[in-house]
Design goal:
Elements lengths: L18 E7 L2 E7 L9 H8 L9 E7 L4 H7 L7 E7 L9 H13 L11 E5 L2 E8 L2 E8 L1 E2 L2 H7 L3 E4 L7 E7 L3 E6 L3 H6 L7 E3 L7 E13 L2 E10 L3 E3 L3 H15 L6 E6 L2 E9 L5 E7 L2 E7 L2
Parallel strand pairs: 2-3, 4-5, 11-13, 14-16
Antiparallel strand pairs: 1-2, 1-19, 3-4, 5-6, 6-7, 7-18, 8-10, 9-10, 9-12, 10-11, 13-14, 14-15, 16-17, 17-18
Family: Belongs to the diaminopimelate epimerase family.
Catalytic activity: (2S,6S)-2,6-diaminopimelate = meso-2,6-diaminopimelate
Keywords: Amino-acid biosynthesis, Cytoplasm, Isomerase, Lysine biosynthesis
Length: 313
């Protein structure tokens, strides 16, 4: 360790000796650290250094596994859901805090199981705390299914009246397009495109312009509905996404949910409740269901994998 504030690896010296894992869900990748007792608070600078794809481990975000009782947000959740032992402390790759991440929840649970910090057998449910509230996880075919909770329009009056509430522009689009803003606990603005070639030509290296933009910014999904839209009762979409604080990612779980919400709304009353959303990193399943609270929830399903473990120099 040098006196310059950086270790021999070039990372901040404060990170030396930190044990980590690397995982992904359909290509949406994360650095994961276990900190059960909340002793290792990470700074925005440390997160950004770890997630740097050239000088760090490289990831779309960082997830810290900490017991809910060790965080103010977690303790608040425990008052209504005592079973939420674990809290997913999630950061975007630029170090900013985020409410949660749908792919990240699955990878987080996979990490907890691999670390021996939790158990989840087929038919059982694991309750996870996030800044977007409680998420329940079950074992699914080739991965995990997460009840993402209820969805809602960010601007419900505009959505009901016009089926859109924003104007979105991005490099590669010939003209700005209408968008519909959906909250999945975090904000999304969904834009429908007509052709896969148009989707491929859209440049998401820089953040699209969204007017008006939701208060805390927004993730932007560009989607192309399949033709035919429904095959064997399942709606089919292809999607790319620009995530706030990250950039374009290979996948976004909450974005896939928002894309299905918006497309089902546009398609009308006969639209299906099950969707397969193809993203650059694979395929995610989205299902609409009525929960015990009487509200319509969205369930996200897909794979999760750990690919590496290590200790920072």
């Amino acid at each position: 360790m040098s006196d310059s504030g950086f270790s021999a690896s070039g990372l901040p010296a404060s990170l030396a000796g930190l044990a980590f894992a690397k995982g992904h869900g359909t290509g949406n990748d994360f650095v994961l650290i276990a900190d059960p007792d909340g002793e290792r608070v990470v700074t925005a600078a440390e997160v950004a250094a770890l997630c740097d794809r050239h000088r760090g481990i490289g990831a779309d975000g960082l997830i810290r596994a900490v017991r809910s009782e060790r965080l103010p947000e977690g303790r608040a959740l425990l008052q209504s859901e005592p079973g939420a032992e674990w809290f997913m402390d999630y950061y975007n790759s630029d170090g900013s805090l985020s409410e949660m991440c749908g792919n990240g929840v699955r990878v987080f649970v996979h990490f907890l199981l691999a670390e021996g910090l939790a158990r989840l057998e087929e038919g059982e449910t694991l309750i996870i705390g996030t800044r977007a509230g409680i998420k329940t996880v079950t074992v699914a075919d080739k991965g995990y299914a997460v009840d993402m909770g209820p969805w809602e329009f960010i601007h419900p009056d505009h959505a009901a009246a016009k089926a859109m509430d924003a104007v979105v522009n991005a490099d590669g689009l010939e003209v700005p397009r209408p968008g519909l803003s959906v909250s999945m606990g975090n904000p999304h603005t969904v834009v429908a495109l007509a052709e896969l070639s148009e989707l491929a030509a859209t440049n998401l290296f820089t953040a699209p312009s969204v007017q008006p933009e939701p208060e805390n910014g927004t993730n932007v999904e560009f989607v192309v509905p399949a033709d035919p839209l429904v095959v064997d009762g399942v709606g089919l979409l292809t999607m790319r996404v620009h995530e706030r604080g990250v950039g374009e990612t290979l996948s976004c779980g909450t974005g896939a949910c928002a894309a299905a919400v918006a497309t089902r709304f546009w398609a009308g009353r006969d639209a299906p409740n099950e969707w397969a959303v193809t993203v650059p990193g694979g395929v995610l399943g989205v299902r609409f269901l009525t929960a015990e609270d009487g509200r319509e929830h969205v369930e996200l399903s897909g794979p999760a994998a750990l690919v590496a473990r290590g200790t920072l120099l």
